Q: What sequence folds into this?
């Protein structure tokens, strides 16, 4: 047995057509080829991405309060070497693994500045606070955003594949695609499907978001979508998609018919039960007359409620701060309020605004002298 002999794994790979018969005798390595997708498979993956990302964009709009558009998918086959040469700067990766309905994982790649904009909006900012280092709070926030986005897109995929699809909680982290020690399942297969989307968020982001999938996982999704185990051609793509839609409509129609049949059966049974009941005598109800107006006197003494405690509070002023500013509070921090020096303070009784007053000092204690009692019509609850 010599060093130039092929292993059983290499022989199996050659029989499957995944490797070319090109052996480098100097390095004792087998040179591999990229497995490709047909145009029909690319079209199907683009349609899957369109539907899932469309739902995800709606979810992201709810989180950010900004118009979100994710569109124009571009599907291509690549590998780890090409990715490492094309994307050399650090990115934020979100690892999404399917735990039900689909078996596999995919990686969402976002630019670090885009993540800063998204997380700043999620924390109540205006999306311009990007001149800073990416921190753990950013990664935690983008993980939650992607959890909700991919979760909603899984609902759309469930309807598309006619099965329940669920994911594990996504994990966000910084990644450099040109590093050799990336320990992710997706990079164990050299051939990777890259689906690129254009992402627009208000007037803050006009960028690109990438979805990376192992090629076997991508092919499996397409095969399941079109209901075939082998390769297919572009001529039957529309027919298969129409068939899927027809099956979905037929299921919906069947569910509606079953619902109507159940309601009719319940109605008929209830009618039969009514007919079987014994005859009941019915007579007109007689109500007591209240025409006579009698003067009723109540004890209006306030003694009854004099012992009920009422909480009186005095508000010195208010202010509004961002979470990032509150996290910077410490001993000695001065907080500016919305009240001017000498401006009357507001006095509340059980949260109801009742009077205005001014601060006084009695011995070593603070007190409030009431200067004005508010008209009841102008009173409001404490917000």
A:
């Amino acid at each position: 047995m010599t060093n130039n002999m092929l292993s059983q794994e290499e022989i199996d790979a050659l029989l499957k057509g995944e490797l070319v018969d090109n052996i480098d005798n100097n390095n004792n390595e087998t040179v591999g080829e990229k497995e490709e997708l047909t145009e029909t498979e690319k079209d199907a993956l683009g349609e899957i991405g369109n539907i899932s990302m469309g739902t995800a964009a709606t979810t992201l709009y709810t989180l950010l309060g900004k118009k979100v558009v994710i569109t124009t998918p571009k599907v291509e086959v690549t590998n780890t070497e090409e990715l490492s040469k094309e994307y050399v700067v650090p990115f934020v990766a979100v690892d999404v693994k399917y735990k039900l309905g689909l078996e596999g994982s995919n990686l969402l790649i976002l630019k670090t500045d885009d993540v800063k904009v998204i997380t700043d909006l999620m924390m109540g900012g205006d999306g311009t606070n990007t001149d800073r280092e990416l921190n753990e709070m950013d990664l935690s926030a983008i993980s939650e955003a992607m959890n909700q986005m991919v979760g909603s897109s899984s609902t759309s995929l469930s309807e598309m594949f006619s099965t329940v699809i669920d994911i594990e909680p996504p994990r966000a982290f910084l990644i450099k695609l040109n590093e050799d020690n990336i320990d992710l399942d997706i990079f164990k297969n050299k051939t990777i499907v890259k689906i690129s989307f254009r992402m627009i968020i208000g007037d803050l982001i006009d960028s690109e978001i990438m979805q990376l999938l192992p090629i076997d996982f991508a092919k499996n999704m397409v095969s399941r979508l079109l209901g075939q185990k082998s390769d297919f051609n572009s001529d039957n793509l529309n027919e298969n998609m129409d068939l899927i839609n027809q099956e979905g409509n037929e299921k919906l129609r069947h569910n509606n018919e079953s619902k109507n049949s159940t309601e009719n059966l319940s109605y008929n049974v209830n009618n039969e039960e009514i007919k079987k009941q014994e005859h009941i005598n019915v007579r007109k109800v007689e109500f007591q007359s209240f025409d006579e107006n009698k003067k009723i006197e109540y004890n209006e003494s306030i003694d009854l409620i004099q012992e009920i405690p009422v909480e009186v509070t005095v508000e010195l002023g208010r202010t509004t701060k961002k979470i990032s500013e509150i996290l910077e509070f410490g001993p000695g921090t001065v907080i500016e309020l919305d009240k001017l020096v000498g401006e009357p303070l507001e006095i509340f009784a059980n949260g109801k605004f009742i009077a205005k007053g001014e601060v006084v000092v009695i011995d070593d204690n603070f007190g409030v002298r009431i200067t004005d009692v508010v008209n009841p019509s102008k009173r409001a609850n404490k917000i």
